[in-house]
Amino acid sequence: MEAAYNFIFEHENDDILENLELLDNIVRRPKTYKERRDYFEEYDDVDFRTRFRLSKESCLDVLQMIEDKLEYPSNRNKSISPINQLLLTLRYYATGSQQITMGDYCGMSKSTSHRIIHRVTVAIASLGRQFIKFPASEEEVKKEQLQFYNIARFPKALGALDCTHIRIRSPGGENGEHFRNRKGYMSINVQAIGNANLEILDLVARWPGSNQDQTIWNGSYRNTIFESGQYGDAFLLADSGYMNRPYMPLQYPLTPEERLYNESQIRSRNPIERLFGIWKRRFPVLTLGIQVQLKNCLPIIVATAVLHNILIKAKEELPSDDPEIQLPAPWDDLIEQGHIREHRHNDNINRDINPVRRSLINNYFRSLHLQSL
């Protein structure tokens, strides 16, 4: 109808009466209502979890937290119930399909499914402060450090830091190429800090894919907190994509102590890699690509992160426990040698060990020796 009006009023020299007669001859498409199936009652819990990634119990828990934001004031024009709105959005996260396909699956038009997906996404993302929280109290910090220590006996680790690329469609415009990452596709480089239980403790989802991990960390709020020393002697586990810090792996480990230190730290930061894998497998829209406008991509990333944490807390779809990790280096032999002495090397070997990291290594093994006495 709108196209017809535009066509008519573009021809200003035509007779107005003829234009009005043309409008009268336009036949509007009748409004139809598609059948909406009750998937919540139709599927058992196994089929429901396969298609929507949440169990029925978790789905009801999420619905209870956001239902007041999804409820329509009246039932005019056969308004869609909150549970059907939530299931439509979960199905979109679980498949990454086009929104017109989601509308056909749930019995609604493309425009309606578009509005509902973003409405529910914003509602779930608003729960971010409740479910994505960095440890603040001393008890919470010690709890996280103990969980990391139990992985490979690496002390004082508060979290594992890394970034991952979330594929998006090209935003276009003069700044569109800023989102092309080193792998050649458009993405948002998302920074996350995870704990040993695969929960997301901190999330930064606003940087174009061309930005490096270190750039994102430098501009984050959490970096400011760590630099100010508010977390004391706690630190983060990171890979070689970040600057030379005390918590970085050694680039050239030569002695048994240094190799063991490196191995322990690498194994301790493994949960962040597993976290990204589970998060993306659970919600394939993050892997296949978010085919919406850029402004709507960020709430989807946050909303899926919130759902991921909810499922982790509910212990749903967790991978089986890994077998006990055996470090290749002889822990007992190194501890029995007494305090760790600083090893000297040939002058022709270029060492990349700053005094802070050297002190950390020595204190690390000294503390292990004292515990073994």
Question: How would you characterize this protein structure?
Answer:
There is one protein chain. With 373 residues, this protein is α+β, with helices and mostly antiparallel strands. The chain contains 18 helices and 4 strands. It has helices at residues 2-10, 16-24, 39-42, 45-52, 56-70, 82-95, 99-106, 110-125, 128-131, 138-152, 213-218, 221-227, 256-268, 270-282, 285-288, 294-313, 331-336, 355-372, and strands at residues 157-167, 187-194, 200-208, 235-237. Strands 3-2-1-4 form a 4-stranded mixed beta sheet. A hairpin with a 5-residue loop joins strand 2 and strand 3 (200-208). The radius of gyration is 27 Å and the shape is elongated. Mean pLDDT is 80; it is low at 317-331 and 338-352. Belongs to the HARBI1 family. Transposase-derived protein that may have nuclease activity. Does not have transposase activity.
Q: Report the end-to-end length measured between terminal Cα atoms.
A: 85 Å
Mean pLDDT: 80
Give the radius of gyration. 27 Å
Class from secondary-structure proportions: alpha+beta
Number of strands: 4
| Helix percentage range | 40-55%
Element string (H = helix, E = strand): HHHHHHHHHHEEEHHEHHHHHH
Strand numbers in spatial order across the main sheet = 3-2-1-4
The biggest sheet, with number of strands, parallel, antiparallel or mixed sense and barrel status, is:
4 strands, mixed
Flag low-confidence runs.
317-331, 338-352
What is the molecular shape? Answer: elongated
% residues in beta strands? 5-15%
Give me the number of helical elements: 18
